[in-house]
Amino acid sequence: MNNIVFLNGQFLPANKAMVSLFDRGFTYGDGVFETMRSYNGKVFALDLHMERLTESAGRLVIPFHPKRIYFKNSIEKLLKLNKLNHEGAYIRLTITRGVDYGRLIPSQALKSTIAIIAKPLDAKIQQYQRNGMRAVYLSNKRSLPHIKSINLLSNVLGLIEAKKRKAQEGIFTDGNKILEGAITNIFISDGKSIKTPPIEDGILPGITRRLLIELARKEGIEVAEISLSKKDLKNCKEAFLTNSIMEIVPLLKIDDKLVGNGKIGLLTRRLQQSYKYMMLRQP
Fold this sequence. Notes:
The protein has eight helices and 16 strands. The protein is of the alpha+beta class.
């Protein structure tokens, strides 16, 4: 696929976009990123993604002072160039510390590398939303959980393990405590209220997680951000996973055990519909 990408201010064919072998993103995984979803050519929750990207870069001491309108216009132009402005699309914005010929400790005054890609959504997403997903427990957890770092080895290994066990997602754990998925946040429900692990437990502050909590509370659904155990998931009536690309996906099985009765819960379906409506109303 030779689509158009954005690299350091230029729109280029993907096979012409070159990043130095000395870029710290390549040599050390020294960078941050955001994945976003667009609807009809408009990026959903762009401000929240830029806010988190800026915070992640700040934690890594990567100078990054984004101008919202610049990135908004660049992403929308990229969508048009790739003929993705009339459908949903996957967008990834990556910032690395930049090219550095020095040692592990960063040199001074480096210029960040900025790259944006856009591509069609995976066709499996709708299938997961309709039919749910299966997950497995993982015995490790994300490194630097509050930073959306491009160093995703724990997540990669987690998904490899999940696939080996014929599942689509892996759930990080800390002993008996459940944390988050390799690419998602997790919620459980008794059919009336919802619970999700708190940020303080060492999870990524997901954008969809944040928006869903706000949406549920507006609809009068009780939300608790509280530590959860494997027993809590075993005993819940329904559960679901969230991220910016897949939105809300029912979780029907963990390891070889059914979640609830193994069917998609009514509250999960309600929240899926409410969330979709919220996104389609964006200006």
